[in-house]
């Protein structure tokens, strides 16, 4: 399995240090160098077991990458839900493996059994999740890592809001870098610009900001997409989101209803049944439309939560294009992300001047950080101010997919590399829709896939 030249640079960097971090843009491929760094340490007898802590949406991405690396390393995902979930997770931890992959949110719940495993190597994906040093999650991770020799952090940028973010993150990776006293760190690198007022405003001390950055450079390698000249022009990532319990229950019931309808009416009316599949897609977006046309809120929105997480961490400060299918989702996005002053274009916006104005605002206004568009309207205009695009919903149209990606992958795009991120609910219609547009799968095959998926589930019950 080959690496790009910039990934080899990452590996050399992390192999030359006990503690390090890759500060590399989304889509640059941080996962494989991290896995292979651990593998090399293990081959030389310097590391035993490895813990990888990641957001829940990418746990299985790591499993896929470990398999692609073809090193023979055995990995397990420490994940369980439902009754006795904690006990089940501990049982998975007791299994014999080289790599244990865990969700950040489980760290505080499993800190004692994790510490007892005596890991030699830890990889912390999305290191920015630990920028707040006082959270239970951060404290748990520091408890787990206190005796771990090799530490490697991965993130797009360690500083998403203020240079103070670096303190909590480096407290996990290398506590000696800035020390373990936050107040001493703050007093040394920052001053209170509102010292006489009731609310402090902490500003970096200019001549010490360079010192802060230089110390960060001792353990961190910064790579932007423009530096990775061997990357393909467009990198496409899929983020799988675990269904919350209520969504899973609603979804399973709808699938059962669909299977009954298919058995009753037969595949001759596949096109009609396909329209009913839209209800499955609606459930993955947190609502459903009744036969009377009334939209019922189901009380969950995991995709929007994941998007918020992305724009506040990995994509902080960047302009982002967001595509959705349903008007209700577009309205919800516009409301939820008001702080990013989004430009919004959808089918109900029949005023072409207003639509053009929104597109122009996204292209030219530095404060307008998000474009929210309806997938079916993604043609005939430029959105080259952004190099990152996120799909929170999908449809069955290959043409729509091609057109929407073409909004920023065109003449006028100044970034050397662009990134597409697909948000999908795990084991849902999202996965099948995305595959259908990528493989140009026909409608009948798609419906057969849904049927096979349901029959497989029924056999497992």
Please render the helix and strand layout as text.
Blueprint (H helix, E strand, L loop, with lengths): L4 H11 L3 E6 L6 H13 L6 E5 L4 H11 L5 E4 L6 H9 L5 E5 L7 H6 L4 E5 L10 H10 L4 E6 L9 H9 L8 H8 E3 L9 E3 L1 H14 E4 L10 E8 L3 H21 L4 H15 L2 E3 L5 E3 L4 H11 L7 E5 L2 H10 L6 E3 L6 H13 L5 E5 L13 E4 L6 H8 L12 E8 L3 H11 L3 H18 L1
Parallel strand pairs: 1-6, 1-9, 2-4, 2-5, 3-4, 5-6, 10-17, 13-15, 13-16, 14-15, 16-17
Antiparallel strand pairs: 7-8, 11-12
Helix pairs in contact: 1-2, 2-3, 10-11
How many E strands?
17
In angstroms, what separates the terminal alpha carbons?
38 Å
Mean pLDDT: 87
Question: Can you tell me the CATH class of the largest domain?
Answer: Alpha Beta
Explain briefly what this protein structure is:
The chain is α/β, with parallel strands linked by helices and 461 residues long.
Describe the structure.
By secondary structure, the chain is an alpha/beta fold. The protein folds into 2 domains: 5-227, Rossmann fold; 232-461, 3-Layer(aba) Sandwich (Rossmann fold), CATH 3.40.50. It is built from 17 helices and 17 strands. It has helices spanning 5-15, 31-43, 59-69, 85-93, 111-116, 136-145, 165-173, 182-189, 206-219, 245-265, 270-284, 302-312, 327-336, 352-364, 398-405, 429-439, 443-460; strands at residues 19-24, 50-54, 75-78, 99-103, 121-125, 150-155, 190-192, 202-204, 220-223, 234-241, 287-289, 295-297, 320-324, 343-345, 370-374, 388-391, 418-425. It has a 7-stranded parallel beta sheet with strand order 3-4-2-5-6-1-9, sandwiched between helices. The protein has a 6-stranded parallel beta sheet with strand order 10-17-16-13-15-14, sandwiched between helices. Strand 3 (75-78), helix 4 and strand 4 (99-103) form a beta-alpha-beta unit. The radius of gyration is 24 Å and the shape is globular.
